[in-house]
Amino acid sequence: MRSSVVSLFLLSLLSLLLLTGTLAHAQGSSEGATPDAAAPKADTAPASSVVAPPAPATLSSEEIKSLIRQAAEKDIENDRKQRDYTYSERVEEHKLSGHGEVKSTEIRVYDVLEIYGEQMRRLISKDGKPLSDKEAAKEDEHIQKVIDHRKNESDSDRAKRLKQEEKSREEDREFVKEVADAYTFSFVGTESLGGARQLCD
User: Which of the four pLDDT bands, split at 50, 70 and 90, describes residue 41?
Assistant: First the structure.
């Protein structure tokens, strides 16, 4: 459970940092650009006008930690909300060579279900193709086993299980919160890896 929660959190965090770094880089580039000679000159602002300072071209350690805390809070909020829904989940896995080039890509799509308070995933397609009859039957059999087991569960056993599952999720949430304070982060830019921009730290 923890690895899944943390993986999703890190993915959302890296996306947020990459977006912020890209915007900061673009801001820095625009500040250094030479104005078009043909463009009309804007009126000079009065000396008393207040001009907002330009956005920083880099992120400080505290700014990164603040972003991580915000991402953690949103991730925890999403984790709680998504348990009220049945939805499809698309997982795309890239395997890289030693040079950072993508060797292969595997795409899996799951139906995520709530069964007697327990979240379950049923694989429905691989690499854009539906499962074979044999594979689909195996997935259905697994789900049915869980249903048969849970429907015979006593009220006390179910309450005990749900309490333990919530405790485990809360521990995962606390672990995610602690990430920001456990490390010292620095943002030094991005580089291309496998055709995509990646964070450097």
Answer: very low
pLDDT in tens, 108-125: 999 999 888 788 999 999
DSSP string, the chain: -HHHHHHHHHHHHHHHHHHHHHHHHHHHHHHHSPPPTTSPPPPPPPTT---PPPPPSS--HHHHHHHHHHHHHHHHHHHHHHTT--EEEEEEEEEE-TTS-EEEEEEEEEEEEEETTEEEEEEEEETTEEPPHHHHHHHHHHHHHHHHHHHT--HHHHHHHHHHHHHHHHHHHHHHHHHHHHS-----EEEEETTEEEEE-
Count CB atoms within 10 A of the CB of residue 17: 20
* pTM attached to this predicted model: 0.56
- Going by C-alpha positions, the residue among 113, 107, 109 that lies closest to residue 87 is 113
| Nearest residue to 114 via CA among 149, 141, 79, 83 | 83
